[in-house]
Structures are given as structure tokens and as C-alpha cells.
Amino acid sequence: MKMKYSFLSLLLLLFIGCNSDDGNSSDSNAILIKRSVNGSSTFEYSYNGNKITEINIGSIKIVYSYTGDLITKIKRYYLSSSQLEFETDFTYDVNQKLIEERILYYESGTAEKRVFTYNSNGTISFQQYSGNFSNQNTAGNSGIIYLNTSGDVNKVELFDGINLIRKTEYIHDAKNSILKNILGYNKLISIFESGKVNNITSITNYDGNDLILSQYHNIYTYNSDGFPVTLTTMLSSTTEFFY
Questions:
Q1: Which of 56, 96, 112, 211 is deepest in the core (most CB within 10 A)?
Q2: What is the dihedral of CA 201, 156, 36, 65, to 10 degrees?
Q3: Which domains, from first to last, does the chain contain?
Q4: Which helix (H) or strand (E) covers residue 15, if one does?
């Protein structure tokens, strides 16, 4: 079953996941992304120290809630009506590892859930479920997440039962991700397509037979601190970043 928001898509709702470090400490002097602009779309980021509180994107507002240093809820609203579009709730174990995320879709009354398992070989397995707000018991696809030595995701495999149906591989640069210093985002496993520690320079999608379905490349320019100031995609779309 296909999830309503793709496990492999979410750019700026949106960011990082599962660093091998235990998490960023609070640092009011950390370099933080304040604004990004792509054509007519502008993303404005607000913080309390290095805890992100809101992202405003035209007619959309995304609000973040913390429990201590952990992000435990993300809500997305339509600004014109203050209507809640969806919220994502995050559950952690005693070691502050994310073990479950649940997405509630208010317009349809449906819900989805991912449950994460940390394997001894350093990979992370996940199982997807669907249902309503009260219960998410219908099993969907499962998968395995592979990390590189920096803690960034470099491969995701998606399975329908025992059959591999999709594989995505990621290549990163050695520079700083725009979201590297946001407290708690390194715990959010499935939100990583902007890069967690470093920036993604290439994404390749394969089918279950290892045939390439699509491939994307990103080109960055950087400031003196090693953070991106521009991102140009293969479609010649350019995003500017301001800190």
C-alpha cells in the first residue's frame, strides 16, 4: 500500500533523521536556516534558541512541539482558515530513539503509522500501517534504511511482503546540511531528503529488478562556513538559502 505522503519525499516539512550522534545540544549561537526562496515560494523559519517553532510557506504554516529536546509533534495548517491539514506524532524509547510515528489526516479522517526497529548491523527496519484515528492495524509495506558513516541515509529498500519493490540510493557531499543544527531533527528517521548532516547531491530510484527508474542531481554553492547558499536541480530550479 502506498503511503499518503511519500517516505521518500517531504523536502521542507522536512529534513533530517537518525544521526549516529545522540543529538544536538541546545546552542543559541548555532548557524540556522532563516529563509529559503525558490521562485515565488518563500520558506520562513522561526526558532526558540535552536529549537524550530514554525515554518511559514505562503498559505501554509507548520508548527513544531518539543518535549525536552525531542520533537514530539508537527502540525500543518492552512493559514487562510487555520484549518489543520495533518499532524504527525513521534514516540521515543528510553534511549531517545524514535520507535513510532503516526500521521493523522484531518480532511479524510484516516491515519498512518510507521514502527521502527534498530538492528544490530546498524540498519533500521520499518513497518507501515494504516487505519483511522483510533487504530492503525492494516499492515502495508515494510522496509530497511541504511546509513552512511556520517549518519545520513544512503539507501532505502521498500518491500511488499518478501518482495523488493523499490530501492532508492543517496549520495552526499561533505558540507553542512541546511538543517544540521536544528535541535531534535536528527531523531526523525523518515524526514531526511534535505540531508541530515551533509547535503544530497544525487538520488537514484530503482525498481524491484534493480533497473533505474529515475535519477536526480543537485548542485550547490556554499558560504565560508560550509553551508549551502544555492541549490540548483537538474530541472534548472534554483533555491537560495539565508542564515
A1: 112
A2: -150
A3: 35-242 (2.40.128.720)
A4: none
Answer whether 126's CB lies under 8 Å from 117's CB.
Answer: yes
Residue 1: how many other CB atoms lie within 10 Å: 12
d(CA 26, CA 24): 7
Of all helices (H) and strands (E), which one includes residue 32?
Answer: none
d(CA 147, CA 2): 23
Closest CA to 32 of 176, 174, 192, 179: 179
Pairing of strands 124-132, 153-160: unpaired
What is the chain's Cα-based Rg?
17
CB contact at 8 A, 41 and 206: no
pTM for this one? 0.85
